[in-house]
Amino acid sequence: MKTLYIILVATLKTLIYFGILMLHVAYATYAERKVIGHIQLRLGPMVVGPHGLLQPIADVVKLIFKEDIIPIKVDKAIFRIAPLISLSAALSTFAVIPVNKNWVIADINVGLLYVIGIAGIGTYGIIFSGWSSNSKYAFLGSLRSAAQMISYEVALGLSLVGVILMAESFNLTEIVNKQGEYWYGMFLFPQIIGYFVFVVAMLAETNRLPFDLPEAETELVAGYFVEYSGIRFSLFYLAEYLAMFCMSALATICFWGGWTIPPVLIKALPVLGFVPGIVWFLLKVYFHIFLFLWLRGTLPRYRYDQLMAIGWKVLIPLALFNIVITSIFKYYL
Amino acid sequence: MKLREIINKIFLIEIFKGLFLTLRMLFSKPVTIQYPFQRRKIYPGFRGRHALVRDPFTGDGKCIGCMRCTTVCPSRCIYIKREKTENKMIVTDYVIDASRCIFCAYCVEACPVCALVLTEDFEYSDYMRKNLIFNKEQLLKNWDEFASKWPHDVYFNKFWQPPGIDPSRWPKTKREQKPIPIKRFIEIKKEESDESSR
Ligand code: SF4
Ligand code: SF4
Fold it and tell me: Which residues span the membrane (chain A) (predicted)?
């Protein structure tokens, strides 16, 4: 009976979480078009609904009713599975991400490792899709993606080691609680190098500009999902935006103190203490999403060798340096 | 200088400058004109759909069949059929292939009697290429359509008196060209509505 109850609660939680997440993804696409539009002095979507607010819904309807084309020469089984791998990997990461105090589906002790590991599995979806598509554009895109993931996953992991050292835990809730013990309330300040490395690696990890080489529209059309259409295409799209949210949430939890705000601020303005934690969490996540869009609107795409050089020659040494510094401080203070 | 470059490189000054530029743009006013709902003001000298001016006194075109526009047209898209009677040239058909026209308005400048005009009308896209080859009847109808929408009482086209050429070298009719009074043809409008109901 107890097991049944636990399963039921977990399912319910998952469904609610899933619904809210999908809504967020839908409106992230809208926000992206609006932000990039306004950066380029355009308006973005304006026609469907007031200020184009219903545009994401129209897009979803359109994508669902599009013809699902499977080219003749593709490897059909893998071609069908690939988007599902990407999507399920992106979705599973959210199982351990706490959005508020005790608001989490699975509070596991290796949460951080789990997130990084599962995020890495998403790459398989990309590689499979590129391989099975039997198209040179898709294949090149997936090869690039594989190389990029390998180099940036290392930097991503290393940048988080500093946080782990300071929090002395892999548990995401624990990491947030630990940050509240410091007067500044965020690991952002002592871990500024780590944060920088994390942000750059997170852009590369989610294939966003300026590191969107796997899909580079100007050279590879759409890279690994060039042969996909209709609902399968939108699954890749979904996975990309979910990965953005996942990385934003990770940055929020590990560096920005999750749902807490710095104790100094609460001392200065006690009113802030009554704001529910979820509000702070969402604000911080939205800031990171905005950062993604902002960078996309600003920076041009890096060349492939530059991308590799930044990864191996700058980010990894920086992350290692950060670990050494953090360990020294941790040991002597 | 050297130190400055190093600092620039380490703190990514250039990237931050770029980010602030885009942030400023984010909060400035967009330049988009939402076309079907909002329209841009059309300036004098705009070159749009061709029309043959309907003479407000005779009710017919003013063309005298002198062939100057055919000669001057760089893309050779004007075709004129004419018949000679004892003392008068009659233009039986006048065709402009708008799909080939480059809108240079040379024909308008060359015409000695100001019979041609490129109107301010630009929404005449069509599904059929055939419909973009205007014959005389259609060209006159284009004028009526344009005239019925023209807000003022008189109309004068900028290219009827070619800019950059000394007025003494214009033909007399061009020099004496006055803004023409607009006469709105109600019976034409009825015909139009017939067509649309068809
Ligand atoms: S505008 Fe130029 S190209 Fe067009 S019909 Fe007149 S002369 Fe020919
Ligand atoms: S130049 Fe004028 S008058 Fe001469 S043929 Fe052309 S439209 Fe007619």
Answer: 6-30, 77-99, 111-131, 152-170, 182-204, 235-259, 271-295, 307-329
Looking at residue B185, its pLDDT comes to 62
The minimum CA-CA distance between A187 and chain B, rounded to whole Å, is: 20
What distance in Å separates the CA atoms of residue B110 and residue B118, rounded to the nearest whole number?
A: 13
* Residue B64 Cβ contacting ligand 1 at under 6 Å: no
C-alpha–C-alpha distance, residues A46 and A20, integer Å = 24
Query: Among partner residues A37, A42, A294, which is closest to B22 by beta-carbon distance?
Result: A294
Number of helices and strands in chain B (H, E): 7, 7
- Residue B42: left (phi > 0), alpha (psi -120 to 50), or beta? beta
Tell how strand B180-181 and strand B78-84 pair up: unpaired
Does this model's pTM top 0.80? My answer is no
pLDDT at residue B102, rounded to an integer: 92
Pocket residue to mutate for ligand 2, from B69, B77, B160, most atoms within 8 A of Cβ: B69
Task: State the pLDDT at residue A140.
Answer: 82
Buried b (16+ CB within 10 A) or exposed e, A61-88: eebeeeeeeeeeebeeeebebbbebbbe
Arithmetic mean of pLDDT, A41-69: 85
Could you tell me how many CB contacts below 8 A there are between chain A and chain B?
A: 37
Nearest CA in chain B to A44: B32
B104 is in an annotated binding site: yes
Residue with tokens 């306004």: A38
CB-nearest to B34 from A39, A46, A295 is A46
Q: Is B77 annotated as a binding residue?
A: no
Q: How high does pLDDT run on average in chain A?
A: 84
pLDDT (0 to 100) of residue B198:
38
The burial of B127, by beta-carbon neighbours within 10 Å (0-12 exposed, 13-18 middle, 19 or more buried), is given as exposed
Residue A299 forms contact with B (CB below 8 Å): yes
The answer to whether the beta carbons of residues B194 and B187 sit under 8 Å apart is no
Complex-level ipTM: 0.72
Nearest to A255 by CA among A160, A320, A326: A160
> Which letter, b or e, does each residue of B44-62 get, where b requires 16 or more Cβ atoms within 10 Å of its Cβ?
eeebbbbbbbbbeeeeebb
Contact A81, A228 (CB under 8 A): no
Low-confidence ranges of chain B (pLDDT < 70): 1, 185-198
